[in-house]
Write a structure and sequence with these properties.
The structure is a single chain. This protein is mainly β and 163 residues long. The chain has a single domain, classed as Beta Barrel (Lipocalin). The chain has one helix at 42-49, and strands spanning 7-13, 22-26, 50-63, 66-76, 78-87, 92-105, 108-118, 132-137, 143-148, 154-156, 158-161. Strands 1, 2, 3, 4, 5, 6, 7, 8, 9, 10 and 11 form an eleven-stranded mixed beta sheet that branches. It is globular. The two termini are 23 Å apart.
Amino acid sequence: MSSSSNFGLRLDGILVVSMGLFNIESANAKTLQTEAPTTAPSMDIAQVLVSTIFGTCKLKYSVGEIVYESVLIMSGRSGTMRTRYFNTDSGKIEAVDQMMLLKPDPKGLLILGYNPVYAGTSLKNLTYSPDNFFFSVTPDGSATFINCDDRKQCSPVNVEEIK
C-alpha cells in the first residue's frame, strides 16, 4: 500500500534511497563490512545493505472487521510493539505487547513479531497471533507496507510518525 505520510524510522545501512516514507541514512563504512563474497547467499547481502532501523511510529491495520492500532518502537534490529484492539470474545478493548525483530529479505524488509504477552505483564497471550510486517520500495519509488500475522491474515498498514 502506498503511503503519503513520512515514516519516521531511520534505516542505517549502505543502501541510500531518498523518499518520503523512510528517512534512510548511509552507515559509517568503517564499521560495516562493505564487500560480500561472490558466493554469499542473498540474505547475507541484504544484511549488509540495511542493518538497522531506529524510530517510533503508529501503525493501523485490520483483520476482518477488527481494527488494530499499534505503536512500534525500533532500536536497531530489535524493538517492541504495543497493540490495542477490540476482542470480540471478551467484548473489551485489550492490549498486547510483543517483541519485534528486523530481518532483511531479498524483496524488502521483514519486521517479525514474537512472544505476545498481555500489555504490561509477562503473561503470555495464547490467543493473539504475532504480527509480521513487510516493507518494500520498488524502483519507481512506490512503497508497500503490509501486515500478515502468524495465521496468514494480511492487511495493508497505515503508518504515522511519532516524534
